[in-house]
Write a structure and sequence with these properties.
Distance between the termini: 63 Å
Radius of gyration: 23 Å
Strand content: 5-15%
Shape: elongated
Number of helices: 13
């Protein structure tokens, strides 16, 4: 099967390579010429522009977009809408807001172009292990493109599925990432408590390795924690700064809209905000109030 791929960041490039390894024909485009050259070296056909990519694909075309959410996705899909023809398909494999995906599907439908939103999980390990794919859009389009999804997934019978109408794929991926926030925070807090019990001189890397086998808390995230601790036993080479790319915020906002309580995921998101603050005002206010009402000692800023 033939597929166009726009966006050759690490994940997009790895996905293109996995498709090539699976015997598919891939035409690639990225504003960075070196990224295109790297992928053509693996057997893809390169394009110098988005329009050039479309021209190299036989109708009905399928173009997979792997660019950052927001304006990059919006401008890319808008440009595609002017280059593609009725019965072509745009596949958004990025982390777009599901509401934006629903709107894009409606706009493209007016032009006779189909839209599939594919929540994609697997990170840098997807090339080797396959990607988990959560797919929204028309079922008949899903069935036509299923060989592509089977190649990208961990296996032809697992790791991917049709979620429902347009927006469903990105909605499920949004919740997936919210759960990820909570799991990561739980591991982080647990290991911090272990490290704080200094009298036992606990070996965090050894504990992570022990938990990986037979424990009810074993998981791929724990495998990754064990790998990180094996490289840096107390993670002293890192700063306690954790960014967020939007999905956790959208998940928490959805919980407010639907009145579904998500205390763990919400707390995990708030902790990421806290990690990016130096000397937060709230902490200084707490110190000031204790000093004011009780005369408690405070530490002065340098």
């Amino acid at each position: 099967m033939e597929i166009g791929m726009i966006g050759l960041g690490r994940m997009g490039g790895n996905m293109a390579q996995r498709l090539l390894n699976g015997g598919h024909q891939v035409v690639v485009y990225d504003p960075r010429a070196e990224a295109v050259q790297g992928t053509t070296g693996m057997g893809a056909r390169g394009a110098a522009s988005l329009v050039g990519l479309v021209e190299q694909l036989a109708a009905p075309r399928a173009v997979w977009v792997m660019v950052p959410p927001g304006q990059p996705t919006e401008s890319t899909i808008d440009a595609l809408s002017h280059a593609l023809s009725p019965s072509d398909v745009v596949i958004d494999g990025g982390n777009a807001n599901y509401k934006e995906s629903m709107a894009r599907a409606q706009r493209l439908a007016l032009l006779g172009i189909d839209f599939m939103d594919v929540g994609t999980s697997g990170g840098i390990w997807g090339l080797r292990d396959g990607y988990s794919l959560m797919i929204g859009g028309k079922r008949e389009v899903f069935e036509r493109l299923e060989p592509l999804f089977q190649t990208l997934a961990p296996g032809p019978d697992r790791g991917y599925s049709y979620m429902g109408s347009s927006g469903a794929g990105h909605f499920v991926k949004m919740v997936h990432n919210g759960i990820e926030y909570g799991l990561m925070q739980a591991y982080a807090e647990g290991f911090e408590l272990l490290a704080a019990k200094e009298e036992f001189q606990l070996d965090l890397a050894q504990i992570a390795q022990t938990w990986r086998y037979g424990s009810v808390v074993r998981s791929w995230l724990l495998d990754l924690a064990a790998a990180a601790l094996a490289e840096d036993h107390d993670l002293s080479s890192l700063q306690a700064y954790v960014d967020d790319s939007g999905e956790g915020r959208w998940t928490v906002q959805e919980s407010v809209d639907l009145a579904v309580p998500l205390p763990v995921i919400t707390a995990a998101l708030q902790q990421r905000f806290r990690s990016r603050q130096e000397q937060p005002l709230s902490g200084r206010m707490l110190a000031a109030l204790r000093q004011q009402f009780g005369g408690h000692a405070v530490r002065k800023a340098d």
